[in-house]
Write a structure and sequence with these properties.
Structural class: mainly alpha
Helix content: over 70%
Distance between the termini: 30 Å
Number of strands: 0
Radius of gyration: 16 Å
Length: 160
């Protein structure tokens, strides 16, 4: 439940941020108010942090490792997601071709740096978020799971 709640919270936060930045409210592939790639990204960051914390080294090295691993892994996931969305739905939500250090259409070094910095921010605010997430009732998470699955289903029907 813990990781699911992180997934839902950051999927919704990601949707809100993108809606504000791009002004059109069209964030992500789903019909609902969430952009799952952000939720997936944060769960991956939490798992990377868990692995990095098992390494016996100082905190500075752990932060550097978190940054590098998150930047690389999240960029790969973003690229795969971009190609899958284009393949399944027939259109692109983003295109980094104009970025100076693009790695194809769906990945760029500039975005990798943003993902790395975001991983550090997530870990900094994690203790605060853990307190909030621990208070979310299980039934609420189950309701979100049902709504999310329905959204996936209706998105495939409407957009495919």
């Amino acid at each position: 439940m813990h990781y699911l709640n992180y997934f839902f919270i950051f999927s919704i936060i990601g949707h809100i941020i993108e809606s504000i930045i791009y002004y059109n409210g069209d964030s992500g592939i789903l019909l609902g108010w969430w952009t799952p790639i952000y939720g997936i990204g944060v769960v991956i960051i939490l798992l990377i942090d868990k692995l990095v914390n098992k390494i016996k080294t100082n905190n500075f090295i752990k932060i550097i490792l978190l940054f590098i691993i998150s930047a690389i892994l999240l960029s790969i996931i973003e690229a795969i997601g971009g190609y899958l969305i284009e393949w399944i739905f027939g259109y692109s939500f983003w295109d980094y071709s104009s970025y100076k250090f693009n790695i194809g259409k769906y990945a760029a070094l500039e975005m990798g740096i943003i993902w790395g910095l975001s991983s550090i921010i997530v870990i900094i605010i994690k203790p605060f978020l853990d307190k909030i997430i621990s208070k979310i009732p299980k039934y609420f998470t189950y309701i979100l799971i049902i709504i999310f699955i329905l959204d996936l289903f209706f998105t495939i029907i409407v957009k495919h």
